[in-house]
Amino acid sequence: MSKKVFLAVDLGAGSGRVMTAKTDFKKLWLEEVHRFDNPGYDIPGGAFWDTLALYGHIVEGIRRAVEIHGERVVSISIDTWGCDYGLLDGNKRLLGLQQQYRDPRHGGMPEQMFAMMPESEIYARTGIGTNFFNTSLHLLAERLAESEALSVASQLLFTPDLLGFWLTGNAAVERTIASTSQLFDPHADDWAWEVIDALGLPRRIFGKVVPSGTVLGLLRPEVAKQIGGDAIPVVAGASHDTAAAVAGIPMEGDERLWLSSGTWSIMGIELDAPVTTPEAFEARFCNELGVGGTVRFLKNISGLWLIQECKRQWAGEGDDLDYNALAELAEEAEPFTAFIDPDAPEFAAPGDMPNKIAEFCRRTSQSVPESKGRILRVATESLALKYRHVFERACSMAGRRFSRLHAGGGGIQNQLLAQATADALGVEVLAGPVEATSCGNVLTQMIATGHIPDLAAGRQIIRDSFDFETYQPCNPDAWNAAWERFGKIIEPM
Question: Is 241 in the active site?
Answer without folding.
Answer: yes
